[in-house]
What we know:
This protein is α+β, with helices and mostly antiparallel strands. The chain is built from eleven helices and seven strands. The protein has two domains: 8-109, Arc Repressor Mutant, subunit A; 123-234, no CATH class. Helix content is 54%, strand content 14%. Strands 1-3-2 form a three-stranded antiparallel β-sheet, with helices on one face. A two-stranded antiparallel sheet has the order 4-5. A two-stranded antiparallel sheet has the order 6-7. Strand 6 (164-166) and strand 7 (171-173) form a beta hairpin.
Amino acid sequence: MRWIRIWTEETLEGSTFEEMGNSVKMLAFRGIWFSLITLAGNSSIPGKICFTEKTGYNLNQISDKLKVGINLLEEALDFLSSKEINKIKIIKKNNEIIINIVNWTRYQTEYERQKQYRNKGFKKGYSKRLQGKVTAKGYKVKLQTDEDEDEDKDKDNMYISDIFFDFSTGSFRNLLETDIDNWKKIYNLPEVDKELLKMRDWLIKNKNKKKAHKKDWRGFITGWLDRNQKEIEEKKENKKRIDKLVDKVVNEDK
Length: 254
């Protein structure tokens, strides 16, 4: 059985629904987009809608598979492959086309990449690592559990930064209201509190991973907020371009 991954929150709250709007035609385009993802997942070459690596399908064949009219399908393919939307890349060969789903490898094969780690079956608190220490008598080795390692790192981090994240309580310590007020002004983000909750959830989720244990917690927070601000600005600019494109498509249909 083949299956595809759908990033639920990113789909509902991200760019996909925003880009395609809610007009009747845009809703149809959205349905065709998800149908194309399904078709690409069922392909002999995942992420690529084709018969073989160098042989594509004609529009009639794709239309039949997706149970959609050819005219609507052509419009949807033009829209999805446009520079502004950039969800698919189309390669034309005579009367056939090969459709590549943009960023397929990034989103759909992440499961396979992480599979090797999940299959090791290590459970929290039971996986052990060899910790080496050179002594005058040679190389001394001791076993340390994940919980011991987390505890040691938490203690170290308390003295490295004025702000630190306490994994035992799942909260930031030494975080002042003045810090939050300043970040709201600097990054023009009124909902800094909401971003802090997202950080907390991310840290708890990755508690047993090295990347969750920071030496500069203030830098971690400001870096997160900086990236968030840039993403918001990019979305605003993209929305302006997409609105123009959607208006153009809708007006042409009238």
